[in-house]
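Please go through this chain and its backbone structure tokens and walk me through the local backbone shapes. Keep your notes short.
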Amino acid sequence: SALCGSGTELSRGCEGVRAREVADASTYPWSALGRVNFASLHRRQHCTGALVGPRLVLTAAHCLYSFARKAWIPASSLRFVAGYQRGAQVAVSPVRRYLLPAVQDPSGRDFRTGPGTDWALLELSEPLGERAGWLSVAALDQAGLDRALAAGGRVALAGYSGLRPHVLTVDPDCGPLRFAGGGAPLLNRCTAMAGDSGA
């Protein structure tokens, strides 16, 4: 099972989440990862995000949408905590604004599902990447993926899962890997659950 959640079938995937290694989130490259936090009077939630520039964080678009309220969460209600680990962090910043794929309308009440459109870029108020570092982003196709894997590369999943929300945990090998078609999404074998979105 690729998912961890409630119910007989989904709960089988939780063993994969429990088996992950705990990373030292205070050291690079793990410090470039962190939690995208949201809290209101009635709800707290988090997702995983990655610094991809001094002020830019890549995460999942659905993390910014309240399905209960059918509304997008205002950027001013979001915080990014880089290198978070057991209450400590490398750096923290409010989110100034966010950018979504064109198919998503942050002024509307709908969320358009689909793995190719489930991404968001957060612009931070503070340049956390200067302290925490950031990860580079590059286009990848099946041929490039095959070359990287043949050279000994691996794809890992690092996130703040709902089972262990206060530590960054890593599955070091998500293979075998392949693109589903048309360049996206990249299918892998790592187990994921709520909180890992954006990992």
